[in-house]
Specification:
By secondary structure, the protein is mostly helical. It contains 20 helices and no strands.
């Protein structure tokens, strides 16, 4: 019998790897067989399979839409599209861009914007310089009105009176104080019963031109005759806390003394007298005549009048004449206050009148010995 040949690739028992390599007993590499991937594993799908997948996905999406958005699906209409050969009528039919647009609801602003986009030449407009200025003025007026209505009071920081004082003339500054600042302050006091801090600072800055301040604010306020005591105290506090030239204060005090009596006048007289200016004799005489005027008045004078008289007696008792002193003593006999009149009498009795002082000064000058120089004093001998 013929023995079957042993496979060269199968290694024997107890044979080392080195002997196997020398004997050539190594398994041979098998030849590669070509094979094709299955349809499921191939990366490229045929037409039928892709159509089936797309149809299943579309059906699944429709089911989801019906379940999640039933309102949309109920109103949605599927357009009937038929692709075929066009007839001669369809070819000759005029088609516009509106045939491809749905009926959309557009706001008026969007419609105007769309029209301007379609017709850019019509959207252009030319504005004159006067129209632009009027438009800016209207915007500024609306801004000021909104500040007045929202904040309740316009901040005077935006309209600083010192700017007007430094730029405008004396007459124009006086008109600004009288027509703008004074009514604004009085309206604020009437509504809120107290003055805004910004308005009070504006009133202090208005003293940058004291003559315009006196003629445009203080004198018109008192000449109107309706100045309340609250307003007099607030306006007077500005005078008391500020430094004013003596000539302007003297002129204003002279005009107030020539007015009729009101409580506000007495307050302002006392504020001016408390500043202790070296007043001219004309102003002092006007103040004396202001008080003597009420000697025969039948009404009982209020406390404010007595307080202003006491202030005058304390500050300027040595600047009145002897005749004025006697007239004031007769006045307090008829117009008296149990608490203030004794102080006025004491001040007047302790005073030295200006005419007496002038006479004493003249007597002192006349009593001085006249020195006569001789030649011996000069040294000629």
């Amino acid at each position: 019998m013929v023995k079957p040949k042993k496979s060269k690739t199968a290694p024997g028992k107890n044979v080392t790897l080195e002997k196997q390599l020398t004997q050539g007993k190594v398994s041979k590499q098998k030849s590669k067989k070509k094979f094709q991937l299955r349809a499921e594993e191939s990366s490229v799908l045929d037409g039928k399979t892709s159509n089936k997948i797309l149809a299943a996905a579309k059906a699944q999406q429709l089911e989801l839409n019906k379940y999640n958005f039933p309102s949309i699906e109920g109103t949605k209409k599927q357009p009937n599209i038929s692709i075929g050969e066009l007839t001669e009528e369809d070819e000759n039919k005029n088609v516009s861009e509106n045939d491809f647009m749905d009926n959309l609801e557009i706001d008026e602003e969007d419609a105007k914007a769309f029209e301007r986009y379609q017709n850019p030449q019509e959207g252009k407009r030319t504005l004159k310089l006067s129209d632009l200025i009027l438009e800016k003025i209207q915007e500024k007026q609306q801004d000021i009105q909104s500040k007045l209505t929202e904040d309740g009071s316009l901040k005077i920081e935006d309209i600083d009176p010192r700017i007007f004082c430094s730029v405008l003339s004396h007459a124009m500054a006086q008109r600004f104080f009288n027509l703008v600042l004074l009514p604004r302050i009085r309206d604020d006091l009437c509504e809120y019963k107290k003055l805004n801090m910004h308005l009070y600072n504006a009133l202090k800055k208005a003293l940058f031109k004291p003559a315009a301040f006196m003629k445009g604010i203080i004198l018109p306020l008192l000449e109107a005759g309706d100045c309340s005591l609250r307003e007099a105290i607030i306006f007077g506090s500005v005078i008391a806390r500020s430094s004013i030239p003596v000539l302007h204060s003297s002129a204003c005090l002279l005009k107030i003394c020539e007015m009729g009596y009101t409580g506000a006048n007495s307050i302002f007289i006392r504020y001016f007298l408390d500043k202790r200016y070296a007043l001219p004799y004309r102003v002092i005489d006007a103040a004396v005549f202001h008080f003597i005027r009420f000697e025969n008045d039948k009404r009982e004078m209020p406390v404010l009048w007595h307080q202003s008289l006491l202030t005058f007696s304390q500050r300027y008792k040595n600047d009145i004449s002897s005749e004025q002193k006697e007239a004031l003593l007769n006045l307090i006999r008829k117009q008296s206050n149990p608490k203030i009149t004794p102080e006025i009498r004491r001040e007047l009795l302790a005073s030295k009148c200006r005419d007496v002082e002038m006479m004493e000064c003249d007597n002192d000058i006349a009593a001085m010995p006249e020195e006569i120089y001789t030649d011996k004093d000069v040294g000629y001998e």
